Amino acid sequence: MKKLLITTPIYYVNDKPHLGHAYTTLMADILTRFYKKQNRDVFFLTGTDEHGTKVFEAAKKQNKEPQEFCDQNSKLFKDLWKNLNIEYTYFIRTTDKRHEKGVEKFLTKLKENNAVYEKEYKGLYCTGCEKFLTKKELINGLCPDHKKEPKEISEKNYFFKLTNYLDQIKKIIETDALKIQPQRAKKETLGLLRQGLEDFSISRQKVKWGIPLPFDKKQTIYVWTEALLNYITAIGYGDDPDQFKKWWTESEKIHLLAKDILKFHDIYWPAMLLAAEEVIPNKEFVHGFFTVNNEKMSKTLGNVIDPNNIVKEFGVDSARYLLLSQFPSDQDGDIKEEQFKEKYNTDLANGLGNLVSRVINLADKNNIKKEKPEKEIEEKTKEAKEKYANLMENFKLYESIEETWKLIKFCDSYTDKTKPWEIKEKEKQTKILSNLLYLISEIAELIQPFMPQTAEEIKKQLKENKAKPLFPRI
Ligand code: MSP
Prior knowledge:
Elements: E1 4-7, E2 11-12, H1 19-37, E3 42-49, H2 53-61, H3 66-83, E4 90-93, H4 97-112, E5 116-126, E6 131-133, E7 151-160, H5 166-174, E8 179-181, H6 183-195, E9 200-201, E10 203-204, E11 212-213, E12 216-221, H7 223-228, H8 230-233, H9 241-249, E13 252-258, H10 262-275, E14 283-287, E15 290-292, H11 307-314, H12 316-324, E16 333-335, H13 339-365, H14 375-393, H15 397-418, H16 426-447, H17 452-464
Parallel strand pairs: 1-3, 1-13, 2-3, 3-4, 8-14, 13-14, 15-16
Antiparallel strand pairs: 5-6, 5-7, 7-9, 10-12, 11-12
Helix pairs in contact: 2-3, 5-6, 5-10, 6-10, 11-12, 13-15, 13-16, 14-15, 14-16, 15-16, 16-17
This protein binds 5'-O-[(L-methionyl)-sulphamoyl]adenosine (MSP).
């Protein structure tokens, strides 16, 4: 089985992490745990994007040196991942020396391969997006995402010959050589390619906070060009050829992201790799974008939910569950904060928690040791497990949770129907409770990637035949 690289976007450090960042990173963590359970060798990469105007200006506002500001905010991401029990393999920072070295090598290679040229450029630049916008994209003269007027910039830049690779990219996407999921994202990418795209500039003359262009040190490498390269510099490009070969050239590569940065990942990134004669990623999953209480998350609206607070209120595994069980990952959705408590009580306290303690208490009270389950029960579980695995492999984490909860509900109704506490014949009672104990141990396996600590606790309680409340009602 091939090795597997799973990545998240690297997040801007201009502000502290929010629910959106937590969602993608949690998804990557869950997939990593899922594949590790199947004995795959997985490298889970995440990190922070620290250069560019946006970060520089945010540092200035706080009267901080950019590096000091990046150190402080990058740590907030690391702290949050720790709180959410995210087990990444490596955390890359684009201010790392190793990243710089890899980026320089890659840009030199692009130049050698004739994929770069110089041009005088004039355009409207939005620092919020860290990209140039066309007049057509503006709404009432403002950036549609950041509601700010872009700045007119005129300077000499180096350009990447994107147009040379567009036909190839189209083929790669149509044939699923780079498989973009869900289908909607693939269509959107093909739509962008049909509209036609232009070469893009890969350097800036006036931006100082960045990596100098190796063949013209007066220029700074465009933050997006450099950020995309994190996916390879983190695993040894330009520094450790063996590591790079192992985790990029010869592995299966999956990028997770949301639709806000689709063009960069689906088109620019594979084109850059083709130009440098490197292999392209295998899959990209583009999850939905969500709002909070029907509003775009923004500081001014005051609706930025700090994921650390959800952990504080509900505990780490519950926070992981609550985040992922909101809506299907391939759709946009709205997070309603007041629903967290209700969902916690329904699904976790009254659902999973109640089932586990009910069954283990019954087994304990009647002194029943687990025996082999009945064939029917084994079959039912096998079917659920297969469906679950298929859903996980297609990034349908919400639906995998649903599949697991169907099994929990089945256990509830099976217990209510068979009433094992009323049964006098020991053999019959043992059979029923063995079925239930087996189902619970399988449920623990299914929830393990989502709620690793709870899964361990259930296994422990099953082994000791002693129930302890998993999710106190709140
Ligand atoms: N630094 C770039 C990415 C470079 S990757 C080579 C960037 N950073 S970001 O901090 O803005 O993060 C964007 C990503 O955060 C999204 O693609 C998504 O993964 C996650 N999300 C941020 N807000 C989100 C929502 N409101 N909803 C869902 N995911 C969101 O872009």
